[in-house]
């Protein structure tokens, strides 16, 4: 498996990974019709996004052979600062991380997270936070194994007209990216 920076050419495979991950992880949390009809035109949005240079954002893909099996976006916590104000001391954020369900529990998510954590730490974007859809046992187990802990913050997010609860998790300052941890 190889971790590398995403390019616009990865957009179609990224959408396929996202669609498969949503359908597997969000079943029972998100309306089944929404999951069945996930838009494939999202790849156009991904192409545009990946073509833009954003110094405080990193999109990584995990490849196995010639295929993208996962991807993640790391950036600053947009609720804490605008882009022109963000920098060392601004919290970092795992904006999203998806691995195709056929590759869950095989190290791709951990490898993506480790590289993103290193990148955020090098830029002083600490602490590192993320939001997870409450009730998503798969993601909660993954995040807690990695070292994230709930910090008590909550919000709702809207998915196709439904307001769903989310919990924020934070990676403790003493977390290590050491593989033996």
From TrEMBL:
EC number(s) given by UniProt: 2.3.-.-
EC main group: transferase
Keywords associated with the record: Acyltransferase, Transferase
Keyword Transferase: yes
Claim: Transmembrane helix is one of the keywords in the record: no
Segments forming domain N-acetyltransferase: 1-174
GO MF annotation, one: acyltransferase activity
Pfam families assigned to the protein according to its UniProt record, in alphabetical order: Acetyltransf_1 (PF00583)
PANTHER family linked to this entry: AMINOALKYLPHOSPHONATE N-ACETYLTRANSFERASE-RELATED-RELATED
Name under which the protein is recorded: GNAT family N-acetyltransferase
Provenance organism: Glycomyces rhizosphaerae
């Amino acid at each position: 498996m190889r971790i590398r920076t995403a390019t616009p050419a990865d957009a179609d495979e990224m959408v396929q990974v996202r669609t498969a991950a949503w359908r597997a992880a969000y079943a029972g949390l998100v309306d089944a019709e929404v999951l069945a009809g996930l838009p494939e035109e999202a790849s156009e949005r991904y192409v545009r996004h990946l073509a833009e240079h954003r110094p405080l954002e990193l999109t990584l893909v995990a490849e196995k052979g010639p295929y993208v099996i996962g991807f993640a976006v790391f950036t600053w916590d947009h609720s804490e600062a605008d882009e022109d104000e963000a920098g060392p001391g601004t919290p970092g954020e795992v904006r999203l991380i998806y691995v195709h369900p056929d590759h869950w529990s095989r190290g791709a998510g951990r490898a993506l997270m480790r590289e993103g954590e290193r990148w955020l730490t090098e830029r002083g974007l600490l602490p590192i936070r993320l939001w997870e859809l409450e009730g998503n046992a798969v993601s909660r187990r993954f995040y807690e194994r990695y070292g994230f802990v709930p910090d008590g913050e909550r919000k709702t997010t809207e998915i196709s007209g439904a307001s769903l609860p989310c919990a924020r998790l934070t990676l403790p300052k003493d977390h290590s990216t050491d593989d033996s941890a």
